[in-house]
Amino acid sequence: MSGFGFDTLALLTAVAFVGPLVASLPHLRIPLIIGELVAGLVLGKTGFGMLDESNPTFQLFADIGFALVMFVAGTHVPIRSREVRAAVPRALARVALCGVLAVALAIGLAWQFGTGHAALYAVLMTSSSAALALPVMGSLGLKGPAVLSVTAQIAIADTACIVLLPLVIDLRRAPTAALGALAIAACAALFFVVLFVADRRGWRQRLHDYSHKNKFALELRTNLLVLFALAAVALRTHVSIMLAGFALGLVIAAVGEPRRLARQLFGITEGFFGPLFFIWLGASLHVRELGAHPKLILLGVALGLGAVLAHCVGRLLGQPITLAVLSAAQLGVPVAAATIGNEENLLAPGEGSALMLGALLTIAATSIAGALAARVQPKSTQPE
After folding, report:
1. Are 274 and 65 in contact (CB under 8 A)?
2. In Gene Ontology terms, what is one molecular function of this protein (predicted)?
């Protein structure tokens, strides 16, 4: 693909149907993104080479998709729920215990494979994915105190690891990344104050009514403006746009997301930019490198199994094993690690694909654990 025109857009839009087709297979519960990633692999440099992931326009569209995916993920975190906030202490304990075990496993893996990326592996294995796990729990109808507790755990781990990733992926840029993360946090906090004041004084509701009456979509335009501004700050300070999107999503979740805005965000993200990003990610991964470096296949498997094992430590604190495995789901953090690592040449050849292989194993484990948790719903709703 030498250029990026409407023919390419038509191809990408058509290929994006692979995700829903795979996800609709009965009884398998395959996450939507698996089909999109596989489609990208087939059409990218791993397969037929029909998609050029280095095309600047393709990269820009993918970055927009990544920012929107993380924005929507942030809005899914139930910050306003009193029950979830009450579950925070026990959830923090599980995250901390998981992190300790993940550090031990990461040091062993970095030494065994000679990569020197122990800090990165520790963050990866500790991370969870609110964007993946929360919708899975919702679709399966999982409820009860134990589910609320794991929801808080996933939100804490996801937020912490998103903040930590830019600091550990390249230790030489850690001070700059820390300043960038603080800048994004400050901008997000300022936007929260503005929205909170506007909400208390009724300005937000009047803007919503006016926009709805005249069909201006002013809330969507405002949020996209802030999202792209935060993404610009992130890029200038060498921080992943993942942090910008997730921070803004948390702000909207804290203030309260209007249903109309939620529908609009769902439409543009899930209908176009999100699938495009995952197709681009699949196209950018060079899985054939794993064949040239067989040890990296073992690294990917070890990272996936290590993440599941680290999260299963929650069983020691009374967490149902199915929910412990479900909390190991990874998406945004390994995606960002592979994306940043490949773009900045921070990873060894094939290492980015190994990170994604580990993430895919956690997604498979999450799918199985979610189905099992739904079957024993009465047991999983008991207090921990």
Report:
1. yes
2. antiporter activity
Instruction: Find, among 189, 185, 181, 172, the residue nearest to 237 by Cα.
Output: 181
**pLDDT tens column, 146-184:** 888 888 898 889 888 988 888 888 877 778 878 888 899
Domain assignment present for residue 352? The answer is yes
Q: How many domains does the chain have?
A: 1
Q: Which residues contact 3 (CB under 8 A, 6 or more apart)?
A: 55
What is the DSSP code (8-state) at residue 5? Answer: S
DSSP notation for 295-310: HHHHHHHHHHHHHHHH
Supply the pTM of this predicted model: 0.80
Q: Evaluate whether 261 touches 218 at the Cβ level (below 8 Å).
A: no
CATH number at residue 274: 1.20.1530.20
Query: Can you give the residue range of the structural domain that contains 298?
Result: 65-376
Contact (CB, 8 A) for 119 and 335: no
| CA–CA distance, 87 with 152 (Å, rounded to integer) | 6
Handedness of CA 202, 203, 209, 210 (dihedral sign): positive
Return d(Cα 83, Cα 361) in angstroms, integer. Answer: 31
Position 14 in a domain: no
Residue 59 lies in a domain: no
pLDDT in tens, 37-57: 889 989 988 888 888 888 999
Decide if 205 is inside a domain.
Answer: yes
